[in-house]
Amino acid sequence: MEKITRRYMASCKNMDYSRFTTKSSQRRKPNLIREMTKARINRPDSVFLAGGLPNTETFPFANITVTYKDGQRYSLAGQNLDTALQYGASQGYPPLLQKMREFQIKWHNPPRNDWDLALTTGSQDACCKAFDLLLEEGDPVMVQRPTYAGIIGALNPLGVEVVRIDDDADGIIPEGIETILENRRRDGLVLPKVLYVNPTGANPTGTVLSEDRRKRIYELAQRYDFLILEDDAYFFLHFLEKPPTSFFSLDTDGRVIRFDSFSKIISAGLRVGVITAPQLLLQKIVLHIENSTLHTSSLSQVLLYKLFESWKQEQFEEHFQYIQQFYKKKRDIMLAAVEKHFTGLAEWNVPNGGMFVWIKILGVEDVFDLVMKKLIPNGVFALPGNAFNFDISVSDQHLRLCYSYATPDEIDKGLSIIAKLIREETNKKEKSDCV
Amino acid sequence: MHKYVPQIKMDYSHFKTDVSKRRRSAATRELTKIAYAAPHNVISLAEGMPNEETFPFVEMRVKLNDGSSFVLEGEELGAALQYIPSQGYPLLLQAMREFQRKAHSPPLWESRDIVVVSGGQDGLSKALEAIIGPGDPVLVQDPFYPGAGVVIAPHLVELIPVVQDDFGIDPIGLRETLRSRRYSGKKMPKIMYINATGANPTGTVLSLERRKEIYRIACEYNFLILDDDPYHFMYFTEEAPKSFLSLDTEGRVIRLDSFSKVLSSGLRLGFITAAAPLVASIELHMQSSHLHAPTLSQVIAYKLLKIWGYEKMMEHFRRIRLFYKQRRDLIAGLAKKHLHGLAEFSLPSAGFFLWIKVWGIKDTWKMVMQRGVTHGVLMAPGAAFMADPSQPCNAIRASFAKASYEEMDLALERLAILIREELVLGDSITDSEI
Ligand SMILES: Cc1ncc(COP(=O)(O)O)c(C=O)c1O
Ligand SMILES: Cc1ncc(COP(=O)(O)O)c(C=O)c1O
């Protein structure tokens, strides 16, 4: 009862989103033919010759049988197979949408009820669509630095002004945001309408934004009226005692757009992500989906739904725990190797989530050449920090090391090679410094 | 001995938008590419791929209607569930390159490439967005597929409609339009959108002479041809159509294929075949949007192509042609029966649609969208396909792909009633307006 009242109260305050959306997004039109598919749902006895649906009889598939790890088996045939092979709604496969709505309530207990979600072709597709919706050329946008390379690729072409928000071991720094915004206000500059952040297991740093900072940042968003784009691909991949509090679960105003991804926990190749947003914004995203991918692979969506249906409640928890333990073990192996090989050569923080250790190489001003000219020719791939800067030519001392894949032996061997090459590099430098 | 390989001489930077020119590759994606190509002994701590060991699937078994089957397990299943390079699953790309070469024998093949997109619509939007910026004019066949219209809509683009007859776009009209544009000093179009085979919504197939002439015009006026051709193999004519790609001696054709109508629409797979620099632009756009088309879909398509080979695939297309041709004949017969004296139509030469022009009604929009819905017959009003949808249009598009014979019969019967009522209503409306 109290929850209902709270929800009702919260919904009374309504944001005006028109300030946030671009002119071009306001010109987006629905594809009428796809709209008519909806009319059909309201009148199921009507004869539908409006759409261009192919006839599934002509498709060459008889059935698709999937075996899960727990030994259960599911066979897609008949009506279910037809659904998996046929066009579907742009927002997503309805049963999976419904399941996801239930999950979001369970996982985040959001304070408002005027949100909805859509399934996208991976979460990055949704991020890119959100940028398209919110950012005009020249608009300032606050971005966590260093920044996931995919986001750099999406933002750069838009010609926006990137306002970098620094982070430390606890994630992005609220005081940094405040100072920047106050300075901009003082200088008469436009204030950014959007903050992009990875709160859990940031890519590339592995930081988890502290609980206190999450609250502080949300308050800043209220004070300075910006939206928070919470790209949380590693939400289930944290190494903490209890799950972090999402911005979505703090969102009393309707200013959070949340991005979830199945890539790290179920499969990256299915390309399914989830965008959760205030309905008014979400509708525009769905329109964009309709104008581009049409919808996320029906096969991927049906497979996910059937998997979720087969799992009992405990199995979800078990799966998440298994994933967390799996990656935590990998992280610990990586950290031990980092300590063994890099002590004295580098600095790092312990990542509390995600798949990466972000290390700062001491004595090498720019790692780019080290990676390209030394590491790669010696058979070790690591990402130079430059990849996470908007301007790749700016020097960077960091390496991002991914621990999801490599075996302990590979990690040990890889790091010993890297350490050796760093030593060569710094020795060379010392020598030339002596000259 | 040096073998002479002819090269494309076009400069594509003229065609690209500023946004497209600003795209840079994502280092993480480039590494996925390198890692995919790298020998097994490299140690990669670079790309952020999740570990497939944690994924909850152990086997997928796909059975085909012809009795053959394949299994995805172990490494192959792992690959199907994993990130891949944005351009596509390398084995599928290879198979599609061979397929395109056999199917179209495109000139300048060495200078072209393919990218796997998440359905034709995805390819359409990414190709158009790479080329048309605010205020740019675009040539479109009129009427045309609204999926192209919605991509263009946000960009304040000027549509230059090109009229069609029963054989598609008329080159004479096209040339006239371009000539008068140039004469009056207007901005010239960089691209033309067209469905060469089974135009949506009219079902026409562009004749070979016209294709050649339109291609000549494209060279003369320096524009690209975006041939969105999902119905290429679904023609009902005697002869197989020859694609624009197969005529493309200069590298100005962007060919869009889709598996939606022939293998499965739910898998969301399409292909762009174009000059390598254009393909590269589109790949960059994918790197920052959905990363790549679903891997599982791509692996399934690859296995199917591999099991079947080119010949069996063609056989499959032959069966599909027969299947839809029968349906086309059914709906044409029913339309003749029910719409006699009320409407006219041409027999579609390819694709899924019958384009009906209603007599005595200026605009079908309200009739279809309001009364049609309540009468339980859902068809698409013609104006939805027009370059200028605000103009009245007396056409209706009916799909014959999916409905049963009984349903088609009922739908056309209901449509006839609808038209008759509309004629009466229309009279009374005009009367009362006077
Ligand atoms: C921060 C972040 N966002 C988004 C993504 C993309 O995820 P998806 O596969 O769901 O598009 C990644 C993947 O590496 C990521 O690290
Ligand atoms: C002409 C045309 N282009 C593109 C599409 C989109 O198809 P898909 O995205 O499923 O490949 C369609 C589907 O109806 C179409 O008719």
What does this structure look like?
The complex is a heterodimer of chains A (435) and B (434). By secondary structure, chain A is of the alpha/beta class. Chain A has 2 domains: 2-27 and 88-305, Aspartate Aminotransferase, domain 2; 315-434, Aspartate Aminotransferase, domain 1 (Alpha-Beta Complex). In chain A, 44% of the residues lie in helices and 17% in strands. Chain A has helices at 2-12, 23-26, 32-42, 78-85, 94-108, 123-134, 149-155, 174-186, 211-224, 247-250, 279-291, 298-310, 313-342, 368-375, 408-434; strands at 47-48, 61-68, 73-76, 115-120, 140-144, 161-165, 167-168, 171-172, 194-197, 227-231, 256-261, 273-278, 346-348, 356-361, 380-381, 383-384, 398-402. In chain A, helix 4 crosses helix 12 (298-310), helix 6 runs parallel beside helix 7 and helix 13 runs parallel beside helix 15. The longest helix of chain A has 30 residues, at 313-342. Mean pLDDT of chain A is 92; it is low at 1-12. In chain B, the strands form 3 sheets. Chain B has an 8-stranded mixed beta sheet with strand order 4-11-10-9-8-5-6-7, sandwiched between helices. Residues 430-434 of chain B have low confidence and may be disordered. Chain B has 12 helices and 16 strands. In chain B, helix 8 (208-220) links the parallel strand 8 and strand 9. Chain B has helices at residues 18-22, 27-37, 74-80, 90-104, 120-131, 146-152, 171-183, 208-220, 276-287, 295-339, 365-374, 405-433, and strands spanning 43-44, 57-64, 69-73, 112-117, 137-142, 158-165, 168-169, 191-194, 224-228, 253-258, 270-275, 343-345, 353-358, 377-378, 380-381, 395-399. Chain B has 434 residues and is of the alpha/beta class. Chain B has 2 domains: 15-310, Type I PLP-dependent aspartate aminotransferase-like (Major domain) (Aspartate Aminotransferase, domain 2, 3-Layer(aba) Sandwich); 316-433, Aspartate Aminotransferase, domain 1 (Alpha-Beta Complex), CATH 3.90.1150.10. The radius of gyration of chain B is 24 Å and the shape is globular. The longest helix of chain B has 45 residues, at 295-339. At the A-B interface, helix 3, strand 1, strand 2, helix 4 and helix 6 of A face helix 1, helix 2, strand 1, strand 2 and helix 5 of B. Strand 1 of chain A pairs parallel with strand 14 (377-378) of chain B. The structure holds pyridoxal-5'-phosphate (2 copies). One pyridoxal-5'-phosphate binds at residues 122-124, 148, 150, 198, 203, 231, 233, 261, 263, 268, 273 of chain A.
